[in-house]
Design a protein that fits this description.
Layout lengths: L5 H7 L6 E5 H11 L4 E4 L6 H9 L1 H7 L2 E4 L3 H7 L2 H4 L4 E7 L1 H16 L5 E7 L13 H7 L2 E3 L5 H18 L3 E6 H5 L1 E5 L29 H23 L4 E3 L6 E6 L3 H10 L13 E4 L1 E3 L3 H8 L4 E5 L6 H12 L5 E3 L12 H15 L6 H22 L17 H14 L4 E3 L17 E2 L5 H5 L11 E5 H18 L5 E6 L2 E2 L5 E2 L16 H8 L3 E6 L3 H13 L6 E6 L3 H17 L4 E8 L9 H6 L4 E4 L10 E4 L8 H8 L6 E8 L3 H17 L7
Helix pairs in contact: 2-3, 2-9, 5-7, 9-11, 12-15, 15-16, 17-21, 19-20
The chain binds iron/sulfur cluster (2 copies).
One iron/sulfur cluster binds next to helix 24.
Length: 711
């Protein structure tokens, strides 16, 4: 069962005369429907998972408009889908998380960009950059430049975002080039409103099919056509894009009275830049700035005439460009040099070269720049005052905290089925010493954090086993690889498993079969148990493994720690030479809770008997050594002060968040720790038998317990 987006789907039905109120990424989804797309696809990944989630739940609207929706198996598949726009006047959009998704998609993107498009092709990329990101820190800008795909970076405000989606399709068609729409986390989640338009049915669609196929060798990426395509890119498509961007004023200039200075920013950086000016007393609450701002809603290509016009007559400009390399700042230098303009360009000399441009970072950088510019129109005293106040607040916060703010690393959810696998690995390591583990991308990557610290390398989504192929032969003992079921279908089956079978690898692979791509918001994958009518419900990991030639396969229910440890031990010591696959099977706890909670609530309302399992620690027995916590890592298994004054150390304690998965008890049993854990059943709406049993139990307990004051 995936999350339901019924409420969000209603927003997609709004038409002319109505106002959309909501989140940035939903506004993008609505704008796609207003743009007359024929097809849409994508691969889940924060911060743009919502695009696909909502469209998948909006099948009635899609069917009415004849739009084809595809949940692609990977970003490469999504990018290749844009091939529909090469020969035909079909508008299409795809979405994924970047830069990782763009890495996966880059082969198809290069081909697409080389041949160009007839129908508008829009790639919505969730730029996962900054301290809330979950991926390597790089910029998508490089991909746009290398393949000559135009890059939109809209100001985070809903009317601008929607306009850029609509204009993005027009730009794509005017220049026969695919367009990227880059949205940072904050832009995706910004809330606001815009005036909706009616959804537009595409010219060609599932309801209005194409009759005649088009063939044109010039649109195939094979030499000699590729040589002509490269020329066409720079001689025709690029100038056409520059003309369109200029004529349609996709970039924005906000004039201000302090004309000798100027700020140039990526569209996505506008909000933080204007908030900074507001804090420095140089802009009002509505964003009216005293310093002129040139907002690059299109960061590639730049428009030299616009840059020149903005910089002309200014002493200096500050480029607010998040991330590195400083592509835009370097380009500004080149444009001004060519135009023989002497305006000084600042940027990374006042703002950090790398890392997220948070409010504080930009405030500090802009304040220092303004102080250095010493403009007679800027009150330097107030700038210093703001900076001093900022450092005083931070100093005070540090004093109150008594030092550094403690780090809060992410971790597995309470009762996560993946945690027991790592508990079992810890037990095996205790017996046989540590072994090399190639980790992968997914919730299971949290295993690299305390308390497990399991997983030596991470090389990319689904690439765990492929990354193990070089290191495994260098060890005398066997190595282990971890892969999620999401990674398995994304590319692990071919890049890792086919490769290992083909090369007669002797490794051990643990596949975490939790049923969803949980880390991206629990979307369905081919082997999910409950599929909608639009997806095949007959794809199994086991069959795929057998089909590719894996002979040693062992499914284990993850919560049975002893069985998991036994399977690992067997794989480690087996005489079988070849890939050994353990399938760690249990549903993602987040999804399970989401699935059963309404069922429980409904049963309770009907007066039905409901039994919930909870675990606990008998504090009289607990010695307070906390080995269970080190082997489990469940946030629900915590500590509390012992009520026995003779016990100095705090005892283990299970708090009310426990979902009763049983792992802590299993671990205590498998590791022969202690008998402190107990399992309790909470019965709601008890029946007559429950009541009799409870009365009987309390009577017997009453007999066994001495009366108060007795001996
Ligand atoms: S989302 Fe699911 S798989 Fe991921 S940590 Fe939570 S319970 Fe585990
Ligand atoms: S049973 Fe133990 S491991 Fe499972 S959720 Fe409760 S405290 Fe956590």
């Amino acid at each position: 069962m995936e999350r339901s987006f019924t409420k969000e789907v209603e927003l997609l039905k709004l038409g002319a005369g109505q106002t959309f109120h909501g989140e940035g990424i939903l506004a993008v989804t609505k704008a796609l429907l207003q743009s007359g797309i024929s097809y849409v696809g994508g691969y889940q990944g924060a911060p743009v998972s919502h695009v696909m989630d909502v469209l998948n739940d909006a099948r009635d609207i899609m069917d009415e408009l004849g739009i084809h929706v595809e949940t692609n198996a990977s970003e490469a598949g999504a990018a290749a889908m844009l091939g529909a726009s090469i020969n035909y006047p079909l508008r299409g959009a795809v979405a994924w998380k970047s830069t990782v998704g763009t890495n996966v998609a880059s082969d198809a993107l290069s081909n697409l960009a080389s041949v160009g498009v007839r129908g508008g092709a829009l790639i919505v990329i969730g730029e996962d950059y900054g301290e809330g990101a979950s991926i390597i820190q790089e910029r998508s800008h490089a991909f746009a430049m290398k393949s000559q795909i135009w890059l939109l970076d809209p100001r985070p405000n809903l009317p601008t975002i929607v306009r850029m989606v609509e204009k993005g399709f027009e730009l794509s068609e005017a220049s026969n080039t695919p367009v990227m729409l880059e949205l940072r986390i904050r832009a995706c989640h910004v809330h606001g409103a815009f005036e909706a338009k009616d959804n537009v049915a595409p010219r060609f669609s599932r309801r209005n099919a194409i009759e005649n196929p088009d063939f044109d060798f010039a649109r195939v990426s094979l030499p000699p056509a590729t040589y002509a395509q490269e020329k066409h890119k720079v001689e025709v498509r690029w100038p056409a894009a520059v003309k369109f961007i200029r004529e349609n004023r996709l970039n924005e200039v906000f004039e201000g009275p302090i004309a000798e200075l100027g700020i140039i920013c990526q569209g996505g950086m506008y909000n933080v830049a204007v908030r900074t000016l507001q804090q420095l007393g140089l802009a009002d609450a509505f964003g009216i700035s005293k310093i002129p701002i040139y907002v690059l809603n299109v960061t590639y290509p730049l428009i030299p005439e616009e840059v020149g016009a903005f910089c002309s007559g200014k002493v200096a400009v500050l480029m607010v460009e998040e991330g590195q390399p400083a592509y835009l700042e370097d380009a500004l230098h080149a444009i001004l040099r060519r135009a023989d303009l002497q305006t000084k360009v600042h940027g990374k000399d006042f703002l950090p070269m790398a890392g997220e441009y948070t409010g504080e970072t930009v405030l500090t950088g802009v304040a220092k720049w303004l102080a250095a510019m010493a403009s007679p129109d800027v009150d330097s005293g107030s700038i210093h005052r703001v900076l001093d106040e900022l450092s005083a607040t931070k100093r005070r916060a540090a004093e109150l905290l008594g030092g550094a703010v403690p780090a809060r690393p992410p971790g597995f959810c309470i009762g996560c089925p993946e945690r027991p696998v790592f508990s079992a690995m810890k037990l095996i390591e205790r017996e046989s010493g540590p072994f090399h583990i190639s980790a992968d991308i997914g919730c299971h990557t949290f295993s690299t954090l305390p308390p497990f610290n399991i997983g030596n390398t991470v090389l990319g989504y689904g690439l765990g086993l492929a990354s193990n192929s070089g290191i495994a032969p260098m060890f005398s003992g066997r190595t282990v690889t971890i892969m999620g079921d999401g990674g398995f279908w994304h590319n692990g089956l071919t890049s890792g498993i086919a490769n290992a079978v083909f090369n007669k690898s002797d490794g051990i692979l643990v596949i975490m079969k939790n049923g969803y791509t949980s880390a991206t918001g629990t979307q369905n994958i081919p082997s999910s148990l409950h599929q909608t009518e639009w997806k095949s419900d007959d794809m199994s990991i086991e069959r795929a493994l057998k089909g590719i030639g894996v002979e040693w396969i062992k499914p284990v229910y993850t919560y049975r720690v002893s069985e998991m440890a036994k399977a690992l031990r067997e794989a480690m010591n087996s005489a079988y030479k070849g890939l050994k696959v353990i399938i760690a099977d249990a549903e993602c706890q987040l999804e399970r809770q989401r699935r059963i909670r309404p069922q429980i609530a409904a049963a309770l309302q009907r007066g039905k008997r409901v039994v919930r399992t909870r675990f606990g620690v008998d504090e009289d027995v607990c010695s307070g050594d906390h080995s269970c916590i080190r082997l489990s890592g469940c946030p629900s298994l915590t500590i509390k002060a012992a009520s026995d004054p003779l016990k100095v150390d705090p005892v283990a304690h299970v708090n009310n968040d426990c979902v009763g998965c049983g792992l802590c008890g299993e671990v205590a049993h498998a590791a022969i720790l202690c008998p402190s854990f107990f399992r309790a059943e909470i019965v709601q709406n008890p029946n007559i038998l429950d009541r009799i049993a409870a009365r009987l139990r309390s009577t017997v307990i009453g007999w066994l317990q001495p009366a108060e004051g007795g001996r």
